Fold these 2 entries.
Entry 1:
Amino acid sequence: MQLRGPVVEVGDIRTVETSRGTSDLAEVRMRPDSGQAEAVTVTLWGKWTETTDYLDPGMELLVTNVEEDEFRGEIQYATQRESMVVVEPGFLVDVTDVRSWVQCPRMYYLNKLSGLELAYPVVKGTIVHEVFGDLLRGRDLDDAIDERVAEAGLELGLLDKDPEAVAAEVRDHASAIEGWLRQGTLTDTDGAASAADSSERGFSPVENEWRSEQTLVSETYGLKGRADAVRRGGPVELKTGKNTKREPRFQDKIQAACYALLLGEQAVADGGAETATDGGQRSVPDGDHADEAPDTGTLLYTKNAAVERTEETGDLSPAKEFSLGPGLLKFVVRTRNEIAAMEHDVSVPTGFEADAKCEYCFEQDTCMAVSGRLDQESKAGQVGSPIPEDEREYFDRFYRAIEAERRAVHREYTKLWRQSGEERAEDDRALIDLEPIGQTERDGGRWELRAQGTSAVSKIREGDVVLASDGHPVRGRTELARVEELGEEVVVTTDEPVELRRLDVYPSEIGTDRMLTALHDAVLKQSPEKKAVLFGRREPEFGEDDTVYIDNNEAQNEAVSLAVRAEDVALIHGPPGTGKTYTLARTVRALVERGERVLLTAFTNRAVDNAIEALEDQGFEDIVRMGTETGVRPDMQAYRLPDSGDPQELAGRLRDASVVAATTASCGSTVMREQSFDVALVDEAGQLTEPATLAAVSLADKSVLVGDHQQLPPVVQAADDDEGGAAAPLQTSLFERLIEQYPDAGVMLGRQYRMSQRIQAFASREFYDGQLRPATGEVASQRIDDLAGVETDALPPNLRDSVAFVDPDGQARGNTNPVEAAAVVGTVQSYVDAGVPPEEIGVIAPYRAQVAEINKRAPAGVTVDTVDRFQGSSKAVIVVSFVATDTLDGPIFEDYRRINVALTRAKKALVLVGDADALGTDPVYGRMVEWAR
Ligand SMILES: Nc1ncnc2c1ncn2[C@@H]1O[C@H](COP(=O)(O)OP(=O)(O)OP(=O)(O)O)[C@@H](O)[C@H]1O
C-alpha cells in the first residue's frame, strides 16, 4: 500500500542494531490520504533516511509498498525492500533535468536559467533523433534525412552549415541506428519472419516490439519525459556522442532508468486496463510500480559508427545494453527527490554537490558569469561584478514568481489524474467520449486520427498541441497531438496512432521556461545603460523630429513621433477602437524608412496578423512572419518563413527582412534569441507579463509598447494566494508599470473609430477619465439602421435605443442560466429578423458552459464566446450575458477590466442581459445598469 500526504514532523537519523546488522532509520510523521487522515508515523530505513536532510513539515511525501505493523495499539508504517520514497510527488521533474543534475546540479540550474542556445551539435542531435524515429516507423532512410535536414534549414543556415555535409554526417550516425536495428530484429526469434520481411522493406519495426518517442508522465514518481524509443518494453536512449567504453555513461543510464520507472508505472496501468470495461478510466493499482519496470535499458551512441576504427580504440559498438537493477531505480528516485526539494525552497545549487570537474565543463563560462552577476557561490568561481542590489531583488522576485507559475502548471498536470474525465470536461479542459472514426498514415510517417465531432465546449482550439488518448491521458495510451480540425469531425495529427477517444489540454511549461530565460537575458546579460530605464535609474529620453506622419489625428501622430524619437522606450496607450493597429503600422513604416530593423510582435497570433494586414493596407510588404502553419492566418501565409527549405535561402530571408513579425512567445525561441533589432514593437503589451515582454524587448535597442492596461491583464495561471502570493509580480504588465512610472514617455490615443457616442460613454467615464471620444461625428452618430436593409422600427421597442438592458428574471445554475440564455437567443433573433446579418452580431458570456447553452440555439453565423476570446475584435451588435443572479462571482466580475472589454466590442447596438438586482450590489455594475436602462 501507499501513503501520500503532507509531512507533519521529521525525526533525526538514528543508527540501530537489527538482526541483519546495523542500519539507519528515521521517523517521519505524516497525514496520509493527502492530509485527510490522522497523522501516522512512517519509519524510513537505510538510504531513504537521507530524505530527511531536506524534508520539511508541509512538504508532500509519498511512500510506496509500506509495511504495516501494529505496535501497542497504534498502526505503524515502515519502508521495506521494495519501497520508494518520493518527495513532493506533485512536482514533476523532467527526465533530462535528472540527467543534468547527476552531471552537476549547477548545470541543471544553468540550463533552466539560460535555456538552449543555437548550436550545431544541438541541431544535429535533433535531426538524428528525428531520423531515428522515422526509421523506427519504417521510413526510407534517404527520404528521412533529406526531409529532416530541410526542416532544420533555418537553424543550419544561421549556423552557416552546408546541407550536403550535414546530411552526410547524419547518415554516418544513422548507420549506427540501422546496424543496430538490423541486429535487433534478427536476434528476435519470435519475430524472425517479420525480420526477414523487414530487411526487404528497410527496417520497419517488428509489430508491437517498437515504439518511437513516447510521452510519459508518472503520478507516483513525479517524473515526466519523452523516451526516444521503447523496445520490448525497455527504454532506448539515443546519444549523438561517442562512447568507447563498454558501459554507458552514468548520466545516460540515469536517464534511461527514469524512463524505465515511467514505463513500469505505465505497464501497471496497462495491466489494469485488461480488465477495465469502462473505456479506459483505469486506476493505478496501489502497488510498487518499480516491480514492473523493465530490467534492461539500451543506450545507442551513434557517433561510434562514425569514428575511424584506426584512430580509436575501445568498444566501438554503438549499442550498449545495461541492466536496470532496483538499486539504480532507487538512486534515480533519490536524485529526483533532491531536485524536488531544492525547487521547494527555491535554493540554488553551487556545483560542489557534484564530483564534476569544472575544467571539462562546457558550461563553465556561463556558470562563472551567472555566479559573478548574482554573487552566488559556485565551484567554477565567479567572473564580472555583481548586479546592483535593486536588480538582484528584482531578479529574485521574478524568479520566485515564475517558479510559482511553474508549480501552477504542474498542478494542471496532476489534474490529469486527480480529476475524472467528466470533471476535466466540466472544467473545459478535456473533450471526452469521442467516437474514433479513422486513422490514416500521412506522408512522412505522421498519423492523422479522426473522431466524430462533438458539441461539447472546451479550451481546446485548432492549432493547439494537446494530449490525445484512448481514454486516459496518463494511464492509457497517449500521444502528443496537434489539433487540425474541431468541427463536424475532430482531426488531430500524431507521431504514432492511438484510438482517438479523448483530448486533454496539455499543460506546457514552455511559457515559464521562456519567461525565465528572458529574465536571465534581460537582467544578467544586458549592459547597465540598457537597463537604466527598466530599473528607474533615469527617465526615458527622446530626440527631435517634427515630421507629420498622420494628419487627421493628433494623438496618433504624436504616438508615431514619440516612437520614432524614443531612445529607450515609448508607450502608446490605445483604448478600444482608437486606431492602435493603424498607428502601429504607420510607426513600423516610419522606422523602416529611417533604416531601422523592426521586430513586430504581440501576445496573440491574431494581433500579429492584424498588424501585418494593416501594413499591407498601407502598401508595405517587406515582412517575414515567424510562426507555425496553423498559427498564422491563411491569407498571411505568404509572409511566413517556410518550415523547411534551403538553409542559405531561409536564413537569408530572415536576416534581410526589415520587419520580422512573431508572437512574443516565439521571441524566446533559439532562433529568435539570435536575432537583433533596432526597435521592438510590442502590441497587446497590457496582456503580457513583465518577463514575457522582456523576451521581445531584450532583442532590440529600443522598444515601443502598445496596449491598454484598462483591458485584459496578463494571463497568469497561479492563483493570488499560491506560494504565498509569489506570482503577484506577473500580474502587472511592464506596459502598465512603465506608463505609471514614466507618464511623459506615453501618449494616449483618445479618439475612437468604433462605437457610437451612447455606447462609448460608460467606458469613457469609468475607465478613461472621460478622455475617450468618438473620432468623427459619423462615428458618434452611427445607428443600427445604417446597415443596409435594417429598420429600427422592425426591432421590439425595448431594443430601439442603441444601449439596452434586459432582465429576463432567470436563475443561475452553476455556470449557466438557461432562462437568460433563451433571452439572449431571443434578442439575437430580433436583430436578425430586423435585417442585421448574423455575422455582424456577437454574444459574450462569462463561462464556456453558458456559451455552449447559447450556441445550441443561436442563429448560424453569430459569434458566441467568452470575453477573453473577444478582445481585439468588434461587431455591429453585441449582446452580453452576465449569468449571475444572487452573488456576483465568476471571471467576468473578478476584474472590471473584463467588463470594459465586453462593453467596448459593440459599434452600433449593445444589449446587456442580466439580473439587475444582483448587478446592483456592486457600484460599478450598478452604474452600468443605470446607464444601460
Ligand atoms: N487616423 C485615422 N484615420 C482614419 N481611419 C482611422 C484612423 N485611425 C484608425 N482608423 C480606422 O479605425 C478603425 C479602428 O482602427 P484599428 O483597427 O487600428 O483600432 P484598434 O485600436 O487597433 O482596435 P482594437 O481596440 O480592436 O485593438 C480601422 O478601421 C482604422 O482603419
Note: The domain at 420-507 is CATH 2.40.30.270 (Elongation Factor Tu (Ef-tu); domain 3).
Entry 2:
Amino acid sequence: MRILIVEDSDAVSKVLKHLIAQELDCDVDIAPDLATAITLLDVNQYFVVVADLNLPDAPNGEIVRLVLNSYHTTCIVLTGNLDSQQRKELLKLGIADYVLKENRYSYQYVVKLISRLKRNQQVKVLVADDSVVSRKFVRVLLEQHLFKVIEANDGAQALTVLKDQPDIQLLITDYNMPNVDGFELILRVREQFSRENLAIIGLSNDNDESLSARFIKNGANDFLQKPFVHEEFHCRVLNTLDSLDMIRSLWETANRDYLTQAFTRRYFFKKHQNEQQDNNVFSVALIDIDFFKKVNDTHGHDVGDQVLIEFAKRLEMAFGQHFTVARFGGEEFVVAFKGLDAEKTHTLMDKFRQQCANKVIDTSIGPITMTFSCGVATLRSETIDSVLHRADEYLYLAKGAGRNRVVSTC
Ligand SMILES: Nc1nc2c(ncn2[C@@H]2O[C@H](COP(=O)(O)OP(=O)(O)OP(=O)(O)O)[C@@H](O)[C@H]2O)c(=O)[nH]1
C-alpha cells in the first residue's frame, strides 16, 4: 500500500508521514506542490492521496479534481479553513473526507480514516431500498469509502442475499418497502444474525418522529433521517462499523484462547451444552499431547508454546471449518464432531494422529516431533459433561496403552 501526501508545509507532511508510517504498514511519498504530485502520480499507484487545497502552484484546490478525475484515486482533503460553499463542492466532487488542520487530533483522524478505508475494501454492505435513485445515491457514498456494495430492491430480496452471503457486515435498510418493510426485515434478520455478526442502519424519509427509536428498539444499531448530508452518513457508517469491530474484538477475547487462538473451554460448553436436546449424533475427541512436560523441561517454555500454537493450527486446519476446536487447558484440546458417530470420529482422529506423528514441528531450536493420545466418545442420553467424562476415560486408556493412539468404543 502506498500513500501520497501533497502538502507544502514541511512540518505538516513530516508529522503526517510519521503518524501514517507508525500506524499503517505502507510506503509514504511527499509532494510539496502540484508539479511533483503529478510526476509521482504518473509512476505510482496510490491507495489514497492526502491533498492540501492550497498549494504554491495550485492555490484553488486543483489537485482534488486531478486526483479524482484523472487518476481515479481516493482523496482526503487537508485544509486550513473551509467555508460552507467550498465544503459542499468538495463533498459533491466525491472526496472521501476533509480534515481541518487544527491540531494533532486532525492528523490522527487522517490516519484512522486511511486505516478504515483499507479495511473497508473487505467489508460487504447490503443496501435494501425499493427506490433505485435512493439506492444508487447510497451506493455512490459507500463506494467513496471503498466498501463492497450489494443492492436489494426490497426486504424479501435482502433476506435472500443475506442467506447467500452471510459475510455481509452492514445492512442499510429503508423503512417503507413493499413485501417486507424495514422493521420486519430487521426483526427477521436479527433472528439469525447477532450484533457481533451484522450491524444495521435504518433509513427513512417518513416524518414520524418515533421512527428512529422504533428502528433501534427492533434491533438496528443506528438510524438516519433522509435527506442526510454526506458527512453525517459517513460518520454514522464509520461509527457503526467501529462499534462492530469493537464488539467482535471483545467477543474474540472472551471466546478464544490467547496463546493458540483455539476456542476456549467456556465457548465449547456454551456452544454445545444443548446437544442432547438437538437430537443430533454428536461425538467428542479429547486430545492430550504426549510427554509435553518433557518438551518444556528439555527445550524451555517458549518452545513448548510454539508446539502448542502449531498443534492448534493443525487441528484448526484439519477440523476447524466444520467442527469446534477448543483448548481445554494446558496441553489438552477437544474437538466437537457434530453429526459424526464414534466410528467416523475415530477414523478421522486416527488419520490426523498419523499425520501429526509423521510431520515435524519447526521451532526456534529446530524440528521437534510430537504425538498425542485421544479418547473418543459419542453422546447418549446424558449431559455434555458425561460424554466428556467418558472420552477422558478412553484418553486415560490410550495413555496407559503406550500413548500415540486413539481409543473409543469402536
Ligand atoms: N509451554 C507451555 N506449557 C504448558 C502450558 N500449559 C501447561 N503446560 C505444561 O504442560 C505440561 C503437562 O504435563 P503433564 O500433565 O505431566 O503431562 P505430559 O508431560 O504431557 O505427560 P502425559 O500427558 O502423561 O503424556 C506441564 O509441564 C505444564 O507446565 C502452556 O501454556 N505453555
Note: DSSP finds 15 helices and 18 strands in the chain.
